[in-house]
């Protein structure tokens, strides 16, 4: 059973990782990585052949950037196609391709004139992708990808995630009271939103139930087991649920906790301004390293100190927290300000 504190954290994370703000940052980070990769390709000595592996990779990365732009445009209008496998196919494939090519044990990157920059920008993108990777289209025979209590406790792959990896506000809002809207495993999900799995008793998780309706014939919301919330997408099939990595996937009844109607009015909720905070004050007093935290031009400086941008030579300068970080016009690409590890 999830504690109320764990329910609050799961609810916050699901809203955050299904948000326009997070997906926009995800896309911006991949664009910055692609820009740096392009710079490396164009400045390689000797010049790379047009069919070189690294040049072909750049073409793939451009395709992913195009898909990000398309998906973000739809998401900002309330269309969540980017969450579906057929909506983020190129994003997923090319980001995983980037992960493979950035494996320093398999590939040598010393041909890059900006090798460390490329690695730093990939690390940032890969870190942001931690969350959006969970929000994918559910299919009938797949377990809910986010759904396990172990996500907050276990060190066992793939759920080796702790609070220290995420930023949470000082005070988490209460989880909304569950609605009367439910959907059973195998049926079509009626609304985008956050749903909570429930089943009649503790023994069910250790056996494979066959008929979900018979399980709930004499059950009410007050006497059921409840698992970790998931973000389910309208029009997909409600998935099986896996309560832990060593337990079977079981059919459950999903209950709507929160219907996602963001962005349909053209507005971004104020809450999203907290999603990209550089510190986690709820569960850690240690600041998150800014060595790979790029800040796009025209954004507010998140921390007082020295910053630089690869878009301009000799760009290192001091900003105070809250200062606007300018956008530099250059042929390099997007202006991404990076924290200088040398703060002298």
Characterize the structure shown.
- The structure is a single chain.
- The chain has 344 residues and is an alpha+beta fold.
- The protein has three domains: 19-134; 137-259, no CATH class; 289-344, no CATH class.
- The chain contains six helices and 13 strands.
- The strands form four sheets. Strands 1, 2, 3, 4 and 7 form a five-stranded antiparallel sheet that branches.
- Helix 2 (20-42) runs antiparallel to helix 3, helix 2 (20-42) runs antiparallel to helix 5 and helix 3 (53-75) runs antiparallel to helix 4 (89-101).
- The longest helix has 23 residues, at 20-42.
- The model is unreliable at 146-162, 205-210 and 279-292 (pLDDT under 50).
Keywords:
4-stranded antiparallel sheet, 3 domains, 344 residues, alpha+beta, 5-stranded antiparallel sheet
Structural class: alpha+beta
Residue fraction in strands: 5-15%
Shape: globular
* First-residue to last-residue Cα separation: 50 Å
Q: Report the radius of gyration as a whole number of Å.
A: 22 Å
Whole-number mean pLDDT: 77
Largest pleated sheet: 5 strands, antiparallel
**Count of discrete structural domains:** 3
Taking pLDDT < 50 over at least 5 consecutive residues as the criterion, the unreliable ranges are 146-162, 205-210, 279-292
Helical content band: 25-40%
Order of helices and strands: HHHHHEEHEEEEEEEEEEE
Number of alpha- plus pi-helical segments: 6
Total E-strand runs: 13
